[in-house]
Amino acid sequence: MNSSSSILLYHIIIVHYVSFVLQTTVTSLQNIVNQKEETISRYQTLLEEAREEHSTAIQALRQEMNALEEELNKQTIAASSRVMIDKESSRPEQVRVLVEKYLCRIHELEDEMGQARDQIKQLTTQLNDCHKSLSAQHDNIKPPSQRSDKRVDYLLKEVAEAEEQSNDNSTDKDGKDDSDDDSETTESENAKDHDGKDLKRDYNKLADQLRDQNELIEKLNQTIADLKNNKGESVSRERLRSELERKKRRIEMLESKVEEDKVEISRLRHQLTSRPTRPEGVGSLKEEQLQKRIKALEEDLNEAHLREEKERESHRNKCAEEVERWQERKRWQNINDKLRNQVKTQSTQIETLKSCQQRFRDTITRLERERNTLDSKLKSVKGSIPAQNLIEDLEREVKQLKARNDFLKKTSEVASTSSLSEVIECQQRKIEALQIAQKGDSALTEEVERLQERKGQLQKANIRLEGENLKLKLELEKRRTMQLDSDGSPESDGSDRALSRDMSNKKSKRSYEDLEKAVTVLRKVVEKLQHENKKLKTSEPHHMREDKVYVEKLQMELQKAQESYMDSLDKISSLEAHLKVEKENYRMVQEQLLQKARLLTKCKILLERAAVREKALNEQVSDLQKLIPPESLQGTYHNTLH
């Protein structure tokens, strides 16, 4: 009876220890699940913040683009009005208009570059935050206690060995009892009292140990509940460390106690071998009860084995998932490094573009200064023309002819309007010829008239070119609006963008060719003027000195105007090339932003998958708790004690 009770107590101790280990594993799993839930909530907040920042940035960009479009429209309208008013102005004023247009375009490009920089900085900060949070999660998540699994295996092996030894001892005891029934009947009565006292003492010791273990289990459960209630991460980690150290010490104490119990069990077995047998009926009934109890305990142990195997499989699956997550984190880290390198290269390119822009600004200021000097010279030359009386008379005649022309227009719709306009032009030419005749020869007057005719032709060509320029501007604005609309659906309208870019490049090339043709025509005109001036100098060496000085001044001014015009054309071509480069950079930045948006969507999908996995883990933990409720184990323990 005493041996069976000791075996039962030993089995109960082992079962309670296994339940304690299982409870510790379950609590560790719950802690891991709580940590993962906190990380998931953190990632969700980060994603919401990133979405808000992205939406605000997009709204700001749209507002700025609308403002820039309005400014462009205003500037184009103002430029067109200026062109219509200043038809009779000189070439430096036209150069000034072109320079102002390109300045406006450069300012717009600067604003777009600043916006792209801000977006890149925001995305880099978001990627850094995600990387830090992922590394923190990887450091916090650790595998559950493997030592508990080893201890459970070790204890189960000890239980199996103890059962085999008890079976062997029971068989040996039965054989010895059958052989020594008659010889030890007298000794049994004397040894009963001594063995009963020893067994009671051992039973009391084991009961005290079990009570201590139950108290420890309750304390640990309370500490686990306190740790769950505590929200501070630093305090919870320190407490967990202290609790782990205490558990380790307590496990060592329990191992030493188990060894002592083994020694006592061996001693009790030795005593049982020397004890006399009891009647067969009572012993057989008790043995049957003990065998039933042993079978029930074996079934419990088998169930515990199955649960442990399931837990091991789940642990292996978790380890595999953690390895996959680690690989994903590595991949994301490599992608982040690549993006950082790209950002660095783009920042260097932006700095170089800034330096080029500053140089262009300096050249533009220099051109404006030269234009102002030329304007002042032209005004001084215009103010020093003599013979105002003749000019006034001729102007009166011109007015009279204009009035007559209007009267004829109203009265009849005959083709005399063209003749009157020619008469007016001839009169204007005569006025200018008379103005020049006061200074020089009649040959000069004829030459000046011819030059004025050419000037009228050039002005007409200039008006035609300005009309083409306005048409090109309107087409440019339409394409910009189409490009903004196509930015909303970049994947579907990629081919349309390519076609529109090809068309715009072709038209810009055509406009550039037209400008080159106009420049060549102007060069030929200037060369002819220079050649004719040389002829006039050689044919008439004895003209007045004032006329020579005036002609030389005009030649110098023409040369300067030609040089400034050529410089402005070169700068216009360089600015067009720079504008193309800026457009390509803007397109690259847009593509990078789209890639980053796709990466954010992928992160969101991964987080959703992690949340689904966490839910599955919570369900598994709840199933384990249902399979091994601690209250039922405590109830069985109290029933066995009573």
TrEMBL record:
InterPro entries recorded: Cep290
Taxonomy, superkingdom: Eukaryota
Subcellular location: Cytoplasm, Cytoskeleton, Cilium basal body; Cytoplasm, Cytoskeleton, Microtubule organizing center, Centrosome
TM helices/strands, residue ranges: 7-26
Biased composition (Acidic residues): 177-187
GO cellular component: centriolar satellite; ciliary transition zone
Any Gene Ontology biological process: ciliary basal body-plasma membrane docking
The entry's keywords: Cell projection, Cilium biogenesis/degradation, Coiled coil, Cytoplasm, Cytoskeleton, Membrane, Transmembrane, Transmembrane helix
Residue runs in coiled coils: 29-126, 364-411, 441-468, 512-627
Region of interest (Disordered), residue spans: 161-200, 481-511
Biased composition annotated in UniProt, kind: Basic and acidic residues: 189-200, 494-511
Name under which the protein is recorded: Centrosomal protein of 162 kDa
Organism listed in the record: Laodelphax striatellus (Small brown planthopper)
